[in-house]
Amino acid sequence: MKSPRRPPARPTQPVPAVKRLAAGKVRPRGRTGRGKAPSPPSGPSSTGSARKPARLPVPQTGMQLHSADGLRKYLTAGERDAFLREAERADRAVRTLCMTLAYGGCRLSEALALTADRVDLAAGVLVFESLKKRRAGIFRNVPVPPALLDALDMVHGIRERQGARGKGRGLRLWPWSRMTGWRAVHAVMAAAGLAGVHASPKGLRHGFGVAAVTAGIPLNLVQKWLGHAQLSTTAIYANAVGAEEKDIARRMWG
Q1: Are 242 and 210 in contact (CB under 8 A)?
Q2: Which of these CATH numbers, 3.10.180.10, 2.60.40.1180, 1.10.443.10, 3.40.50.720, describes 77-253?
Q3: What digits encode the pLDDT tens for the residues 139-185?
Q4: Per-residue pLDDT at 2
């Protein structure tokens, strides 16, 4: 006896992806890759209308001539003179380092990197490599007084080294570490009775900038001597109270 024939199975229709997603049979696929959920909408959702907190403005930071407490960070002309007088009593190498910082307006690391071939006695300039640059090999010429050039020649034998075979290339005038140089300058500062945030190599550099602007040196020249990338950085020295500004204030006071 033959078995009854079964009716043919009805073809199944594909279930729409929306229904399968609601039933939990498929995982959502985002734009960032397979298996990752799409990012939530940026607008207000049904649970609330919370917004992202606004970003607070980032305070502008830069070089300043006063500390956060209002303390001066540069040496005045009188303090610089007292520092140089005390340097005359120090060791000869310490004395020339102090003079270079005061008259050259350089950073301590730039002074310690100075070599014999970069003391141009004929032109009356010191050639500093600007160390705070994105690339090496950027130099600047800074005119200095003859007294400094004579002291460098007498103490470090500049003419003798430049006349040798190597022309003084790579021969550092002060083969010291930065900490050794800082301690030497700080000891002279203390002996001169100077203390505080301004009694430092950076205070000498700031004092150089203030003295140059007060003497009427154009800002673009001061920028070149100090090795600033932006003229706006050099312009802060014009805000210091110099002798001319004091004279104008005295007229106001009567």
Answers
A1: yes
A2: 1.10.443.10
A3: 999 999 999 999 999 999 999 999 999 999 999 999 999 999 999 99
A4: 55
Torsion from C-alpha of 136, 137, 140, 145, nearest 10 degrees: 100
H or E stretch including 141? Answer: strand 139-143
Q: Are 189 and 200 in contact (CB under 8 A)?
A: yes
Residue matched to tokens 């205070």: 203
Residue 237 CB partners (closer than 8 Å, separation 6+) = 65, 206, 209, 210, 212, 213, 222
| Domain parsing of the chain, residue ranges | 77-253
Query: What pTM does this model have?
Result: 0.71
Give yes or no for a contact between 200 and 185, defined as CB atoms under 8 angstroms apart.
yes
Residue 23 has what DSSP assignment?
H
Tell me which residue has tokens 């002060």. 174
User: For residue 248, is pLDDT > 70?
Assistant: no
Say what the pLDDT of residue 74 is.
92
Residues 88-97 pLDDT 10s: 999 999 999 9
